[in-house]
């Protein structure tokens, strides 16, 4: 403790002595620590200096202070003397009274009103408050009247090294790539010291490493951490724990220090190649495995991590390069071997492959370390499986003529069991594809026969499915599509493409084309259709019309003369024979109707009816239709009227209220009594028909009788 106090006093006195020398000419009292009280032996010299200053620069008042200093954290049995106030108006008597006011006056700082001595009553902390501003004044003790105006001064708290450096942002975490060269920047740390950085070395920091050597170093003044060893390998050690110290007083003995930790992690670089866990892999696979199905996995381990550990796999050699493929599993980084083409135990029972694993991302800085790849051998054994039958062809195309006979063979399919046991095969037709049962198949040899007649013009193609089943294992089934094309034979005669009706103008000219007709044939000859047209033998010398074959396989009908008349003959029928070029040729006779019509001068048909000649000139066809409709309507009305009159009948049964017996006949003749009654039959009056012996019945409806008009 004595050495530390001496060191602090030396650090304090050095700037105070310099300030004493420079400030006294300007009437500033030299800053002192506990010696700021003026010694009694120096009064004459101080007065002389003050008097000289008065001569040079007249002052309004005679204060000899401006600022004072006091050490922080100083404590003792008695208050510490900060300094003394004195004015040249003080003759040494007790008539002057010193008064102190301002920051901490009366609590922290107390003044002796007689001597002007200022004492600090409490221990001060510069980090809490670095300076205090106070006001001093000299007054008359008896009257309290100011002898001079008040004057302001400052008491500064002198710093001592009482605060250790602190790392506010610690602890720290940093990263640096592995295999870095010496001097690679890692991170920078920062410590703070609450002491005064202006005076002394209390806040002058120096950094050093307590733990973490020899791997890392730190710049003493900048606190920059760098690598100190080359080629640090993450795979050997990934994380380092470094302790950094910051010490004040420039790092000298007696300075305070603070520490922090820096966790440094080495980041990965691609400095390791992939390596297969084993040099030889064995896998077995059934021959009926589905295409694309994985059959095994290989793994190349990489000590690196992340993107640097990603590898791609490839088959570089072997007898199954076109049969198998290998891909990379993105999640596990495994090499997955899959089947690309079907396997056949009976053809090849084993395969040998050479696979290679190579890094995807290669760092060129480490290429000198060797190739970043590795190889391994893979042996694959194919195991036998009970396979379904195999057809000799994946599809079949058969052809049959449409006039083929029933039960004739139109084709044959073949299949065999690829297994070593070679089970016999039975064939059948999937009847869902042959609902009309037009075909049959021999179950033993696979010959397909015709069951019903075929017609190409109805259905040109038939698609059926043939099923092959092993007799020893009915679950082993194969199917094959069979397309049957029906070939054409010449079994249809040609005919007119449509029902033609030709119109011939009365004012037509000889040789004029009346109509062009075309023919169609349902058959489909290989070389296309070619039709022959002719007239019936008895119509060859037809005086009215003739025919002409056109190059486009059509027929033109021509008039031989002019002067056709509707009154003479309105309609002509022209039979035409149409023949094809098939073998044997087919023919048919079609009749063309030719109607004679009245035409305009430019050949436009206007009317084709004979009655048109007796119609009034100038009466249009619409008017004629209207007149005819009116006549028909009148006839209908007359017929309805007559029918209703004829069906209007008398009552068929005599009503009781019309009975003549209920009628009273009054006359003046005197009656004859019973003689009159017997002389005349009253029933005759009631029903005149009774005279003929026919008496109508009232319980039935009589037959309708028509009275002559």
UniProtKB/TrEMBL annotation:
Span of domain Cadherin: 87-167, 168-276, 277-391, 392-496, 496-618
Cell compartments where the protein resides: Cell membrane
Protein name according to UniProt: Cadherin-8
GO terms under biological process: adherens junction organization; calcium-dependent cell-cell adhesion via plasma membrane cell adhesion molecules; cell migration; cell morphogenesis; cell-cell adhesion mediated by cadherin; cell-cell junction assembly; homophilic cell adhesion via plasma membrane adhesion molecules
PANTHER family xref list: CADHERIN-23 (PTHR24027), CADHERIN-8 (PTHR24027:SF273)
Transmembrane domains' residue ranges: 613-642
Kinase found in the keyword field: no
Xref: InterPro entries: Cadherin (IPR039808), Cadherin-like_dom (IPR002126), Cadherin-like_sf (IPR015919), Cadherin_CS (IPR020894)
Keyword check for DNA-binding: no
Keywords noted in UniProt: Calcium, Cell adhesion, Cell membrane, Cleavage on pair of basic residues, Glycoprotein, Membrane, Metal-binding, Repeat, Signal, Transmembrane, Transmembrane helix
Major subcellular site: membrane
Pfam families, alphabetized: Cadherin
Topology with respect to the bilayer: Single-pass type I membrane protein
GO molecular function, one term: cadherin binding
Cellular-component GO terms for this entry: adherens junction; axon terminus; catenin complex; synaptic cleft
């Amino acid at each position: 403790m004595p050495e530390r106090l001496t060191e602090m006093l030396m650090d304090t006195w050095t700037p105070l002595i310099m300030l004493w020398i420079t400030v006294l000419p300007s009437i500033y009292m030299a800053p002192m620590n506990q010696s700021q009280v003026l010694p009694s032996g120096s009064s004459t010299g101080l007065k002389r200096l003050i008097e000289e200053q008065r001569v040079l620069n007249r002052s309004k008042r005679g204060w000899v202070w401006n600022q004072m200093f006091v050490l922080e954290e100083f404590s003792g049995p008695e208050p510490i003397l900060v300094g003394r106030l004195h004015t040249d108006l003080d003759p040494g008597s007790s008539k002057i009274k010193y008064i102190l006011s301002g920051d901490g006056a009366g609590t922290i700082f107390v003044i002796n009103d007689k001597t002007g001595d200022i004492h600090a009553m409490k221990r001060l902390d510069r980090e809490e408050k670095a300076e205090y501003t106070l006001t001093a004044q000299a007054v008359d003790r008896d009257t309290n009247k100011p002898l001079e105006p008040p004057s302001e001064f400052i008491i500064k708290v002198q710093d001592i090294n009482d605060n250790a450096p602190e790392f506010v942002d610690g602890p720290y975490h940093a990263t640096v790539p592995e295999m870095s060269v010496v001097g690679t920047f890692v991170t920078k740390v920062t410590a703070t010291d609450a002491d005064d950085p202006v005076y002394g070395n209390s806040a002058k920091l120096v950094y050093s490493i307590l733990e973490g050597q020899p791997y890392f170093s730190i710049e003493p003044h900048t606190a920059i951490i760098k690598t100190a060893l080359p080629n640090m390998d993450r795979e050997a050690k990934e994380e380092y724990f470094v302790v950094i110290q910051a010490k004040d007083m420039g790092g000298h003995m007696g300075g305070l220090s603070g520490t922090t930790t820096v966790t440094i992690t080495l980041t990965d670089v691609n400095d390791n190649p992939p390596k297969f866990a084993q040099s030889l892999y064995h896998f077995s696979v059934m021959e009926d495995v589905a295409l694309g199905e994985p059959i095994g996995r290989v793994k190349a381990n990489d000590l690196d991590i992340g993107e640097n550990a990603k590898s791609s796999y490839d088959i570089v050699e072997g007898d199954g390069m076109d049969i198998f493929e290998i891909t990379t599993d993105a999640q596990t980084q495994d090499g997955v071997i899959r089947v690309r083409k079907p396997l056949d135990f009976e053809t090849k029972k084993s395969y040998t492959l050479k696979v290679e694993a190579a890094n995807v991302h290669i760092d060129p800085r480490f290429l000198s370390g060797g190739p970043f790849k590795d190889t391994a051998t893979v042996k694959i054994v194919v195991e036998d499986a009970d396979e379904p039958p195999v057809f000799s062809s994946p599809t079949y195309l058969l052809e049959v003529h449409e006039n083929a006979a029933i039960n004739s063979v139109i084709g044959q399919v073949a299949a065999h069991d690829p297994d070593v046991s070679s089970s016999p095969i039975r064939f059948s037709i999937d009847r869902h594809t042959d609902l009309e049962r037009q075909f049959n198949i021999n179950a033993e040899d696979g010959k397909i026969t015709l069951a019903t007649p075929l017609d190409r013009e109805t259905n040109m193609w038939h698609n059926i499915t043939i099923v092959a089943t092993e007799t020893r294992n009915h679950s082993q089934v194969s199917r094959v599509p069979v397309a049957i094309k029906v070939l054409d034979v010449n079994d249809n005669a040609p005919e007119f493409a449509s029902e033609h009706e030709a119109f011939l103008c009365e004012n037509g000219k000889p040789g004029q084309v009346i109509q062009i007709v075309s023919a169609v044939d349902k058959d489909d000859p290989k070389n296309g259709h070619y039709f022959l047209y002719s007239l019936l033998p008895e119509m060859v010398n037809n005086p009215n019309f003739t025919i002409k074959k056109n190059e486009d396989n059509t027929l033109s009908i021509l008039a031989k003369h002019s002067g056709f008349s509707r009154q003479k003959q309105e309609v002509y029928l022209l039979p035409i024979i149409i023949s094809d070029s098939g073998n044997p040729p087919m023919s048919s006779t079609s009749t063309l109707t030719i109607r004679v019509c009245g035409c305009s001068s430019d050949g436009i048909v206007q009317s084709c009816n004979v009655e048109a000649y007796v119609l009034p000139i100038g009466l249009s066809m619409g008017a004629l239709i209207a007149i005819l409709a009116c006549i028909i309507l009148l006839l209908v009305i007359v017929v309805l009227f007559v029918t209703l009159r004829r069906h209007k009948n008398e009552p068929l049964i005599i009503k009781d209220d019309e009975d003549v017996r209920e009628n009273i006949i009054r006359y003046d003749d005197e009656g004859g009594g019973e003689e009159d009654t017997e002389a005349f039959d009253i029933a005759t009056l009631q029903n005149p028909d009774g005279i003929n012996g026919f008496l109508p019945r009232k319980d039935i409806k009589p037959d309708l009788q028509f009275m002559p008009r």
